[in-house]
Amino acid sequence: MNKVYTFFCCCLLLAMGGVKAQALPGLKVSANHRYLLTADGDPFFWLGDTGWLLFSKLTREEAVQYLEDRKAKGFNVIQAMVLHTVKAKNVYGDSALVGKNVARPLIKKEHDYWQHVDYIVKAAESRGIYVAMVPVWGSDVKGGLVNSKQAKTYATFLANRYKGFSNIIWMNGGDIKGSDSIQVWNTIGSTLYQLDKNHLVTFHPRGRYSSSAWFHNQSWLSFNVFQSGHRDYSQDTSRGEWHYGEDNWKYVQRDFKLQPAKPSFDAEPIYENIPHGLHDTLAAKWNAGDVRRYGYWSVFAGGCGYTYGNNAVMQMRKADETETGAYGARDYWFDAINNPGASQMIHIKQLLLSRPYLERVPDATLIAEGTQGERYNYLAATRGKKYAFVYTYTGRNITIAPGKIQGNTIKAQWYNPRNGEYIAIETYANTATKTFDPPGEPAAGNDWVLVLDSTD
């Protein structure tokens, strides 16, 4: 068995072009339980992409092409389904399971489904990318195709196979309420947690929910993620504590009120180029400006990262697919990876990591009383001891209260979320209310970040 494994590893490295994967540092939760760190203690800002069907639809060459692009654009996490369904096959026709039973992974000495997954995970590792692996998507679990006994056997298989990989994050669930088959989800989560101490575990919920709704107090849940969903304000007609329309920052605020404290962030906001509400393909489509807004709103509320999504990329729509893709997708993944929103995500990560990261807190009192606004006019504010960021989606005026950060004088700049460039404004005394007028005329998508730094 050792000879077979050694032979496979050699073939793996040769297939990757001779590149030896460098182990990535493990991830952990920060001491204040709000952020993620590497094992070395460096801040880790989760910048994810939803490559949900990466393992099943892309060839090895295509997977490398995709990962190279995401590395170049600053992404450091790919969220991907290990099993989209219990009938899962990869692009080479290899089935994942025997008899559609998750307790019976189909293992061969030569080419099989799991070796293909291994290859892609190693390819991601060599490019500095972590993979948030969803063991099995929620639909089949809810449909009764996975029971707790099978789930334990399957999770044991996954933990033992991947605990030695340096770049794994476990993302239990999959677009599902935790209350649907909760025993199965707890079995998967607890088994992964018990058998694989090297990797963090979370839960991907259905739209307009957070993992905290069901699993916040579970020891296996390392951090919370929420899916703010794809509906706009007019479409989100539901009522209740979890329904916030487009105000995804409210999920972070809600999670931050819970004890014990755990990090939280938006792991599935609206996707670029997908219809509002998903199902009406004639509806308006979310664009790059919307994607940026969801990112800055949620991160400035205290989120420890953000996941981008694209309609064609998340389903890896390929050129041989003659039918229109799900949710009206007409682009192909290899073209859609260059949509503008994807290229702009790196700027939020670069901004957050450019100042002392771990001291950052959300702080609405930076905004002068009565001027924070609501809906698209909402101003999101966050600060450290000697710096502050305030985001406006519409480019409306921002009025800052004095004395919220240290220093007698403050240097003010505009940060452009579209290209990451700064525009100098002025240096002013930190003693009185100050109003700033962003470049351009107020309009949806004329978004800017006001950056304030102490000069002392």
From TrEMBL:
User: Which UniProt keyword terms apply here?
Assistant: Signal
Using the record, list the residue span of the signal peptide; answer none if the entry has no such feature: 1-21
Record-annotated Apiosidase-like catalytic domain positions:
30-358
- The domain of life is Bacteria
Every Putative collagen-binding domain range: 361-453
Q: Which residues cross the membrane?
A: none
Q: Which InterPro entries match?
A: Apiosidase-like_cat_dom (IPR025277), Collagen-bd_put (IPR024749), GH (IPR017853)
The entry's protein name is: Putative collagen-binding domain of a collagenase
